[in-house]
Amino acid sequence: MDVQATLAANMRKYRKEAGLTQEKLAELCGLHRTYIGGIEQERINVSLNNMNKIAKALGVPVSSLLQESGRYDDGRAVFHADYGLCEFDGNELRVRVADMKDPDLGMQILISLIQSGITDEVELAAEYKKTERTLLDYFNSGNM
Predict the structure, then answer these.
(1) Whose CA is closest to 98, among 55, 61, 136?
(2) Helices assigned H by DSSP within the chain
(3) What is the pTM of this model?
(4) Residues 131, 86, 70, 39: is their CA dihedral positive or negative?
(5) Rounded Cα–Cα distance for residues 102 and 13 (Å)
(6) 120-136 average pLDDT score
(7) What does the DSSP assignment read for 21-54?
(8) Measuring CA to CA, which residue among 28, 80, 98, 86 is closest to residue 59?
C-alpha cells in the first residue's frame, strides 16, 4: 500500500472510531470538509502541517496515520511501533520502518518524546532508554 492510501485508510478508521463526520473533523482541524474528503479519497496530497492538525484532532500520533497494517507477502506481521522514519524524495513523503542500526532513529525518538511533552532532562533520558530497550527487545525477538 502506498503512503497516500495508508493515510486515507487510517484517517478514515480513526475518524469513524471517534464518531466524527468529515465535516466535524474539518472543523476541529480548521480545514475545509472537501479537503478532508479529498485526503480520504486519495485525491489530495496532504502537507505535514495539516497532517499534524488532523492527528491532533483525532487524538493520535502522526505516525499512526502513516503506519501500514496487515502482513508482508511472506506472512510476517507489519511492524507496528510508534516510530517510523520519514524522508522526502522530491515532494513525495516516504515512511520506512525504524531500524536500530539507523543513525536517524535516536533523533526520531528524542523528537517524539519532546513533542509528547517530556522536557526534563532526567525524565527524557529515562524515557529514551526505556523506548530504546523496548525497540531492541522487539527487533531481537525475531518479529521483524
Answers:
(1) 136
(2) 3-17, 22-29, 33-40, 48-58, 62-66, 104-115, 121-140
(3) 0.51
(4) positive
(5) 30
(6) 80
(7) -HHHHHHHHTS-HHHHHHHHTT-SPPPHHHHHHH
(8) 28
